[in-house]
Amino acid sequence: MNRLFAALALVVAISVPQIADADDARALFGRGVAAFGQGRFEEASELLDRAQIATSDPDTLAQIHRQRGIVFAARHLRTSSVRAFLRALYFAPTIALTKAQHDDDVERLFACAKTLAARNVTEAQIEDRYPGAFDAPTWTCPAAPEPPPPNAMRLTAPPPPPPPPPLTALAEPATPPGASEDEDGSILSSPWLWIAIGAVAVGAGTVTALTLSKDEELHGGTTDITLRVPNR
After folding, report:
1. How far is CA 162 from CA 33, 134, 140, in A?
2. How far apart are CA 224 and CA 178, in angstroms?
3. Contact 113, 97 (CB under 8 A)
4. What is the dihedral of CA 66, 69, 70, 71, to 10 degrees?
5. In terms of Cα–Cα distance, which of 46, 71, 56, 49 is closest to 22?
6. Helix crossing, 2-37 with 58-74: angle to 10°?
7. Nearest residue to 92 (alpha-carbon basis) of 122, 72, 110, 66
8. First-to-last CA distance in the chain?
9. Which positions ≥6 away from 206 have C-beta within 8 Å?
10. Where are the beta strands (DSSP E) in the chain?
11. What are the residues whose beta carbons fall under 8 Å from the beta carbon of 184, sequence distance 6 or more?
């Protein structure tokens, strides 16, 4: 029995601070909303900052950061407003503006935050990706256009190569003046070559005839005298 009471006491001891923190967060949140309604914007920001520290409940944090974004927009701190709206959407992606009357700038900032959240842009990336994007009075949401779905992308074939140039007949090179018609410039076409060849042939025939007749006997008249040509 004593152990049961001890366990119950421990549960109560743990739950009471959490309930107290939740009550403190709600109280600070209510005071912040009231200060904003009275035009005390800096005081409202301070109370809401304390409220976010006092709780870990996602729904409560979403409401606190949504109100922080509204207060920052009223103070013309648009980048801080978008960051606060992004944090509210992180805790509650379906959260929307309240039915209270808001000016056009607040609605545009909240809509831009929703667009950025849909592109997976986090609060910490705002100033790195879009520095000074909300400073101008006529600012525009810097959200990049949504990429087309993969099935919408078409693969197109590359254009065909250009046709080759028309073939042209190659002209035969002209024979230079004074050159022989033979391509290799041979001396076979020279008449002096054939004259020399004929002279060599005649001389060769004469030498052959003399060689064959050097051992033959020569007979003259009827004197029965045999003449011999000595060998040379």
Report:
1. 72, 51, 46
2. 68
3. no
4. 120
5. 56
6. 20
7. 66
8. 163
9. none
10. 218-219, 226-227
11. none
pLDDT digits (tens, 9 = 90+) for 125-172: 888 888 889 988 889 998 655 555 656 555 556 677 777 777 665 555
Q: Is 57 exposed, middle or buried (0-12, 13-18, 19+ CB in 10 A)?
A: middle
Residue type, 102: H
Distance CA 63, CA 94 (A): 12
Residues 6+ apart with CB under 8 A from 55: 21, 22, 24, 25, 61, 64
Structure letter (DSSP) for residue 216: S
Amino acid letter, 136: A
Residue 227: C-alpha distances to residues 183, 207, 232 (Å): 60, 22, 15
The Cβ of residue 146 has, within 10 Å, a number of other Cβ atoms equal to: 9
Report how far residue 94's alpha carbon sits from residue 116's, in angstroms, rounded to the nearest whole number: 14
Q: What is the identity of the amino acid at 158?
A: P
Read off the pLDDT of each residue in 21-33 and give the average, rounded to a whole number. 87
Lowest mean pLDDT among 44-53, 64-73, 197-206: 197-206
For the chain, how long is the longest CA-to-CA vector? 184
Which amino acid, 133?
Answer: A
Mean pLDDT of the chain: 74
Question: Which residue, 71, 65, 62, is CA-closest to 42?
Answer: 71
The tens digit of pLDDT for each residue in 90-135 reads 999 999 998 877 888 999 999 999 999 999 998 888 888 888 899 8
Residue 40 has pLDDT above 50, yes or no: yes
Query: Which residues is 44 bridged to in the sheet?
Result: none
